[in-house]
Write a structure and sequence with these properties.
The chain is mostly helical. The chain has helices at about 10-20, 40-45, 65-80, 90-100, 105-110, 115-135, 140-155, 160-180, 195-205, 210-215, 220-230, 230-240, 245-265; strands spanning about 1-5, 25-30, 55, 60. A four-stranded mixed sheet has the order 2-1-3-4.
Amino acid sequence: MQLYHHPYSIESQKVRLALEERNIDYTSYHINPVTGKNMDPSFFRMNPTAKLPVFQNGSHVIFNTIEIIQYIERIALVSSGSGIITQSSKKVIEWMYKIQEWNPKFFTFSHIPEKYYMSVSKFIRRVIIARMSESPDLATAYHTKLKQAYETEEKLRDPQVLQTSTQHLIRLLDDVEAQLEQTLYLAGDEFTLADVMLVPVLARLGLLGLENDYINCRPKLAEYWRLVQERPSYKKVIGKHFQGWKRQKTLFKTWCIIRMRCLLKRY
């Protein structure tokens, strides 16, 4: 089994947490979307959406986050054969879909300095155009991605889009706070796949320096956040990439790659 992902991708984090929590072995391949690696023809042929993550088991390829996680759960159920691992309840599944409804893209971009976002966006557009000329058979799919890139830039200039995304997040966190007043974790007193879906959302808020605005102001959520950060799966999937110099190293390395390729005009 192979997983194509990146440590800073929220969707990748969800899947990797599920794999770690269910003790599933897999081969890891890092694909950095900020440097345009997801636009390489080999990856693009496998997944024309160019989105992360992509999970491959033999000829079976999945790139929908919830479908991947449910597939992982089925593998774990078959592998255990002991009844220790049980199938997710209806409540867990409902929370999974509820969390997945919030798209972090516009919220994240709105909290990044415009000059950095626009530099990366311009670079990605040049990468797409370069790959389009290299693989004319994929021109239609690449053109779709180019159009989406322009549409994203346009939407970021619309205050209503950003306001809608923020309001959606606030409603979600308020619902989570209400639930945590009744249970230790999101769907009961055990850590489940519902928590796997939520933890990367909280990690993104931490990465953006917004913990006080969205997490710490909700007492139960703040307590929950401290609790889940102690889990081995969190430390392996997210913690080690977000703490101290490693966080700065990843961001600095990515920015240097982009600047160098722009300087050399090697897209």
